[in-house]
Design a protein that fits this description.
It is a single chain. It is built from nine helices and two strands; from the N terminus they run ααααααββααα. It is mainly α. It has one domain. Strands 1-2 form a two-stranded antiparallel ribbon. α3 (52-65) packs parallel to α5 (102-128) and α5 crosses α6 (130-154). The mean pLDDT is 91. It is a multi-pass membrane protein. Belongs to the CDS family.
Amino acid sequence: MKQRIITAVIAAAVFLPIVILGGLPIVLLAYLLASVALYELLKMRNLKIFSIPGIVSLILLWIILLPEGIWPDIALTKIEVAAIAVLLFLSYTVITKNKFTFEDVGFSIIAIVYVGLGFFYFIETREEGIVYIIYSLFMIWATDSGAYFMGRAFGKRKLWPEISPNKTVEGFFGGIVWAVIVSILFVIFTDIDASFLEFGILTIALSIFGQLGDLVESALKRHYNVKDSGNILPGHGGILDRFDSLLFVWPLLNFFYLL
C-alpha cells in the first residue's frame, strides 16, 4: 500500500500540472502514454514494438493521435491511412510466411484503435476545457473507490467471476452512486452547463462504461495470462492498468456530450 501511495503521489505531481497547462504538453503526454500502452498490448501477444509490424503500429497510432487542427492538408484521411496500414500488415503475413499471422494483424489493428481513440479523445476533451478532464478523472476515481468500498462492505454477489473474481454487483452499483454524487458537485461548483438530471444520466452511462473498460482489460489479461499490463508504475502495474476505464470514458464523453 505504501508503494502504491508513493507512486500515485508522484504520478499526480507530474500528470496534473500538464493537464492544467494543456496545449502542446498534453499532446506530448498523450503520445507518451499511448505509445507505452501500445507496447504493453503488443507485448501480451509476444509482438515486439521494435519490429516491422511494431513500427507500423506505432506510426499509425501517432497518426491517429494527431489533433484535428494539426492534421496536414493532404488528400488522405486518417481512415485511408489506416487502410494502407492494414494492407501493409497483410502483406507482411506473406513475407514472413505466416510467422506474423492474420490473427496478429487483427490484434494489432484493434490495439491501435483501442489505445489511439482513447488518448486522442484525452487531447480533445482537454481542448473543450480543463473542467471536463478533471470531471472525468474524479468521476472514475469515485467509481473505482465506490465499487471497492461498497463491495467490501456489502458485496455478496459476484459481478463477473470468470473475468474479475473480486468485483461484486453491489460494488458495481456503489461505484455508480459515488460517481453521481461527483456529478452533482460538479454541476453545483463549476461552470458546466447542464442540469442535474442531464449530467446525472451522462455520469451513470460513463460510470457503467468505465467499469466495462476495466473488465475489458481484465479479460484481455486473463486471456493472455498476465497479472499486470506492465510494471512502469510500481504498485499499480502498467499504463493500461491505470487508464483502462478512461480509454472508454473519454471517447464516450465526447460522443454523448461534447460534440
